[in-house]
């Protein structure tokens, strides 16, 4: 059944028909606005899917698709990266982290380099994997680096609750989990961006529900569409957004109904509420954003790595020439960065946008460097056209 659904959403003939409809709709919108519409996606998986499937190139003459701060690894602050690397050097510590974090540069080194020097750094696929490592190594402090948005935070919350039930006193979380709405509220009013509409993250919306995004229309007067990840789903979402803009209707529409419901996942939301408080968060590129960081509640301080292993760190400056911060804000593209595909490549990244598989620079390096200008004539399933 799953394969049949995917086949339908990847159908080339239907994609061509929908693409022409979307282009026509966008052209009418261009006439109304006097310019191409600026549409921003807030999901790194969307960024990759839009490039991988050829949607960006296909629609380039008709709409400006902008990539926002949708990569949780990329928006992690320099100081947090340095603290995590410093924790890897603590005697008896095991750092458990997602693979994307291994090569993110700190001010002097990376977790991968520290592992090569003898630090015990292990790649895991979930916080529950990290808890299993803590069970197997009761004499060592296992620190899970929790990176993500609303999608991964519930699993971290459930893991912490399990650790509490077990009395697992050698398991800790360094929480870099962040909320997306505060970042949107901080970024979207920027007059330099002129954002007209938002493609809303599908994975986050599976947890939060469609109604989570109504603040966009109420507070910012912007339309948004919850989008899926297959070619036809992406085109459908852009089409919905073009219609909303054409009608001057700042509503939030769910175009990913096969996975996203109005109310979201109540159990996941409740787990987050039980374990996390909101504090000001430090975002690469955006700076300090109020009430955007999910930190463990004071009652859970015994499992909070930041509390149990306090470190004084000197604030780090971004690498000279790296434009990750501006790229995360949608003000620059990777092609604007003098280091892109030159001094900065996936094998030797300078900034996190080239490290993570959700990073805009990594996506552009893989799919956009050789794209044919002027708009692709077909949808592609991956790689070069």
From TrEMBL:
Iron among keywords: yes
A molecular function GO annotation: carbon monoxide binding
Domain of life, per lineage: Bacteria
A Pfam family of this chain: HypD
Gene3D superfamilies documented for this protein: 6.10.20.100, HypD, alpha/beta domain 1
InterPro entries: Hyd_form_HypD, HypD_1, HypD_2_sf
GO terms under biological process: protein maturation
Keywords: Iron, Metal-binding
Key word Iron present: yes
Family, as annotated: Belongs to the HypD family.
Name of this protein: Hydrogenase formation protein HypD
Species of origin: Heliomicrobium gestii (Heliobacterium gestii)
